[in-house]
DNA sequence: GGGCTAGGCGCC
DNA sequence: AAAGGGCGCCTAGCCC
């Protein structure tokens, strides 16, 4: 059963029963209850934008099992090389290309009533966000997508899996926002005070930074503002140091008394600006950090985030991620996800064998391809990213001889990109075309009057795009594996059912009180927040989901995806 | 004051 | 130790 949720022209919510062809008007204040009622029939909810529709439902205590996110599906179908029956111009003026709604700071969002339009009205002049697609527009888009899928022939089932996984990911993203990462302000502040000294007054630097700045100045014979790259570069050169930049790795090579305090300053200044007291004030409330994930936000299918930097939580502050009393964190990541995905999608049994039951890089060493684990890692990264120089460029060809199928797959993807072509992931997400500027460069280089400089520029640009498409197929298919993993974890955790463990306060929201739920996702890593008595069961769910994801994507291909998994109270202890 | 880029660095 | 792919976000410094 499919139910389409959208707004009538009047702005009132409507539920279109797509199978029965019946339109049901719903009063704004009855919508959440009505969705909950209909959820008993296990429908697939079809809607314009998961973030818009699902966040208020979650806040009202309503979980849905399945959805189809029209905006995300449209982006995939428009670009997919497996789809030629989808007119990219159809509906182009209906605002589907608009990015999802703007970030609303936590405090104000919490106060936003269900389905209020004030946010949009307050930003008059902007394009309407996706939520305001009328029921008619949403239905038309849905029909275009169905028709495109039906015409996709043999690729349709993989595309359908991709769309289902993408939509399930969008549900997870909204649910992570609702549940929130348990974040201990006191623990975070302890980290900051230990590193930087007490919180300074507004406009002042923390004590430790001032001390280090003075040390640097003394060593360089004059006051220095280390936050200013230009000032710092001048001071270093005045002291007789030959430097091209102020990057930490370049400074590390220098032997001078200013360097140690300078590197320490850079590290601490980074902590302060990225995850200092200001970040705590803005992003942590009621013991939760609520990331604003953007599923499908990266062309490869990886998620992006907007604000808060949830994809870059530095190791230094992970001690602040602490389970609620009586709860645990199940922290799991996949060892070497991308090379394993590559081995499976290429059907490279030799590489699968190197990975089976052990560290993939150790397996490569045992096969005698390279001498050390570090070399194996650098070679593999070099092969997947297209390294042309350095150790990666030197070592990657050895992998080509040992694992010709896997390396052939990425080499082929690179060649397609260098010619300006489109590559696709296993499930059918396709790379974008290179820009008009890029094509102009190639075209200029092929003219009879092309100069050597034209040819050099074109070749450089072609190789650069080839590195992108080379990586696209691996990164994108790994993202698909991760989406399937997330979707299976979500289903498995829900099936565990509720416990009597009250969440501390209501921080996790009404849907997750007493229930194990996902609270973090980072490309190949998840964190589940679970009642202690359910933690082992949740860990089993996470493991089983990894096996299921592998089956969904690769059938019975002989590649395993082992997890590093820990049940802990603190993220930092995983 | 806002918009922009560059440099730099955090994550995978 | 970086390189080689993908990002977000901070500051400084420049522009209008």
TrEMBL record:
Catalytic activity: DNA(n) + a 2'-deoxyribonucleoside 5'-triphosphate = DNA(n+1) + diphosphate
Gene3D superfamilies assigned to the protein according to its UniProt record, in alphabetical order: 3.30.70.370, 5' to 3' exonuclease, C-terminal subdomain (1.10.150.20)
GO process terms (BP): DNA-templated DNA replication; double-strand break repair
Domain (DNA-directed DNA polymerase family A palm) ranges: 314-534
Top-rank EC class of the record's enzyme: transferase
Keywords: DNA replication, Exonuclease, Hydrolase, Nuclease
Presence of the UniProt keyword Nuclease in the record: yes
Membrane spanning residue stretches: none
Cross-referenced InterPro entries: DNA-dir_DNA_pol_A_palm_dom, DNA/RNA_pol_sf, DNA_polymerase_A
EC code: 2.7.7.7
Gene Ontology MF annotations: DNA binding; DNA-directed DNA polymerase activity; exonuclease activity
Protein name: DNA-directed DNA polymerase
Organism name: Agromyces rhizosphaerae
